[in-house]
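Entry 12.
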Amino acid sequence: MPDGTRRLLGGRAPGPQCEVDLQSWRALVRLAIGGSAGWYRAWAAGEWDSPDPVPLFALFMRNAVTLGRAARPRGPGRWIGRLAHWARRNSRVGSRHNIAYHYDLGNDFYSLWLDKNMHYSSALFIDPDDHDEEFEQAQRRKVDAILDRIDLHDGASLLEIGCGWGGLAEQAMEHSGIAYSGLTLSTEQADYARDRLGSGAQIWLTDYRDAQGQYDAIASVEMVEAVGERYWPDYVAAVDRLLKPGGKAAIQYILIDDAIFESYARGADFIQTYIFPGGMLMSESRFRALAEKAGLEWRDVHRFGLDYAETLRRWRVQFDRAIDDGQLPASFDQHFVALWRYYLMYCEGGFRGGGIDVAQVTLVKPA
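Predicted 3D structure (tokens):
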């Protein structure tokens, strides 16, 4: 503590154990005013530290219902955060800017710490506690699970909403005769995917709201988080419009527990402020209600949040290795490195704490 004392806090139930070195009371003021974004600013300013912040973030998430107000901005900080978040909403123009902010940092940057197939989404492990399981195989298993949901057959047309660097496309095109189309708003991703996939795939630098045609199947992996609450109905409507009757869509998405959604939605958290401007997590009940209102059937939910925690841990290990080896481009300064390490630890703790999760679900358009 700042006064030199040590405090031992805990409850009766088992849970994460963490150590925090609180070097200034100002850190608690930042937390009270700025929520999780303020807590990050306190860490960046050296007002608190921890040998391993991941269990601390897991503890916050495990107690999110009771600590919900502490994790969100209050007073003027809340309204300033909400106004800034609104200003970066994912309109057609805003989406391009927000996607560029995060994804156009350079393909070389992401290739340093993602798996070799460039999947920027949760892998699916046989056992997420097995640190020796092959990462690339776990990512392939994730894609296989998605493709199994949409019953791809030779000659089928597949649209991917948010195609990334083409990892799912490459695996899907192992099915002979697949007509693949992918949507992205990142010029860096589009160039990479086109070079990777060649003429056998169509990569469109197009907003999902402007996509045309109808497809036998749709895949969308961790893209809906970037849409923003105001545009959730537009996203679901696009899935319905772009699917042929009888078609299936496989969606992988990050969700937040219904019990903490209202608190979460009242302001902009660390992720929305510093990492994914304009984004917001959906709860399962809200996503399902929107899908069913659009006439889509909601089927076969599979949750695997601890797999995401392990995915994030592996990304951080590879990120740290790239830094230690001097591979990070000189344009990324120490502030950037610290922000991204914090981001990876913060998210890992969130999944370990259980208030957020990742799931795959199948949406079916009636014939």
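Annotation: Residues 93-263+281-303+356-364 form a domain with the Rossmann fold fold (CATH 3.40.50.150). The radius of gyration is 21 Å.
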